[in-house]
Specification:
single chain; mainly alpha; two-stranded parallel sheet; 2 strands; 1% strand; globular
Length: 299
């Protein structure tokens, strides 16, 4: 279904997330940054189109393969991401979804062994999932990257991901998944937070923003810029996002702003932003983390 030629890319991805990833309408809507009603309409139209056309699963032509492969990779990435950072509910992670994303990415990598972006996607998943054991306390509280016990990271997954992206980068033009994997590898290679090569990460984010511009990339880019040029430079980078309908009012924008304001020493504004971000998210672990940050500043 995800690859029916008459479906728009967004409808194809949404429908496949429902069918393959098992995600609910609200989860898919948050992944796309649109309302639940909008994504529900897309899924309904896509189902009707597939049903009425009597679609069959057939091998695509070579001309269609690249676009279909792009859609499949997007689906796998969104499934994994929803597992790694659950957008709602009492748990920060959904281990089943993250594991399924990695399993399917491995399968896809075996099916198209020469595709460097598929390899980059698998490397990104492995490098990201390797940090999961250190992302929460025993009580389930969120632990930010800078405060994680790196000895708890899964070394086997880190090494596999680093080896994979290291072998992939020289082989072809670099795509968005390879760039994200390269950023994750730079983090993985730092034994301590202060050892992180932030200038290299900034350079990689600059390339990523040119290739695949989106507000979530800008947020991460701003955090890296703050490490190199200071928090005010990061705040300047995210200021235009207030007028971007894809992320305006999203808790991640507010939370990053709170973090940068805290680094800049603007305690009152950071406190207010953390509180607002906690109100905007539907994830209870993220709510607790953001309220704890606000409480620390209040003290």
């Amino acid at each position: 279904m995800c690859c029916h030629p008459a479906l728009s890319p967004s409808s194809a991805v949404a429908l496949t997330l429902r069918a393959v990833g098992g995600l609910g309408t609200s989860e898919i809507a948050r992944a796309f940054g649109v309302s639940e009603a909008t994504i529900g309409q897309r899924i309904s139209r896509a189902k009707a189109l597939v049903r009425d056309s009597g679609a069959r699963f057939t091998l695509p032509s070579e001309a269609e393969l690249a676009e279909r492969l792009r859609i499949v990779m997007q689906v796998l990435y969104l499934v994994f991401n929803e597992g790694y950072v659950a957008s709602a509910g009492a748990s920060l992670v959904r281990v089943d979804l993250a594991a399924e994303g990695i399993r399917l990415a491995r399968l896809l990598s075996r099916l198209v062994p020469g595709d460097t972006e598929v390899a980059g996607l698998l490397a990104l998943m492995l490098l990201t999932e390797a940090r999961r054991p250190a992302r929460t306390t025993p009580g389930g509280a969120l632990v930010p990257l800078a405060e994680q016990d790196r000895s708890r990271w899964d070394r086997a997954q880190l090494l596999e991901g680093i080896d994979l992206i290291t072998a992939t980068l020289p082989r072809s033009l670099i795509g968005p998944y390879q760039l994200q994997a390269a950023i994750a590898a730079v983090h993985a290679e730092a034994d301590r937070p202060e050892d992180t090569d932030w200038p290299q990460i900034v350079a990689l984010y600059q390339l990523l923003e040119r290739q695949a511009p989106n507000p979530m990339v800008t947020l991460s880019h701003a955090v890296a810029v703050a490490e190199v040029r200071g928090p005010r430079a990061g705040l300047e980078l995210i200021a235009p996002l207030d007028d971007d309908d894809r992320i305006a009012g999203h808790h991640r924008l507010t939370a990053v702003r709170a973090h940068l304001l805290e680094l800049a020493g603007d305690t009152a504004a950071a406190h207010a932003a953390y509180q607002l971000a906690a109100q905007q998210t539907t994830s209870r672990p993220e709510q607790r983390y953001l309220r704890d940050r606000a409480a620390r500043l209040a003290e």
